[in-house]
Description:
The chain is of the alpha+beta class. Helix content is about 30%, strand content about 40%. Strands 2-1-6-5-4-3 form a six-stranded mixed β-sheet. The N and C termini lie far apart (about 55 Å). The mean pLDDT is about 95.
Amino acid sequence: MSEVAPLSPEIIQTVITQYFAATRSANKADEMVACFAKDTVSYDPVGTPAKQGHAQLHAFFQQIAALFVKVELCEEFITINGDEAAVKWTGRGIGHNGRAVTFEGIDLFEFNNEGKIQSLKAYWNPAVILAELQEGSDIS
């Protein structure tokens, strides 16, 4: 029986960098989903029902992006321990109402042995963002 070697911190760092770069790309949902295992489970944000697999994750990322004219996440602090990582990030966006919003969160990632995100737990509060994006608009 052979044991699978843990991923190197460099591989995990690369996937995290790709994921956050995808949030700043024109093709956000496709590029973000490409970082995840096909059987991924995402709690984004924690406290909401799990999104399972690429299709549910893609729909969620598209739904979030559609709230904004422009939105991006920037990783600020990354710590890697074995096949897991925690990332503190800041998001910036401009809503359809012209309002600029800034929001923060912490993502906890688990990686599979193929270097894909196996699970994600995202800690952030969408209610604050939604209130800002809805103020002064016709969103109901």
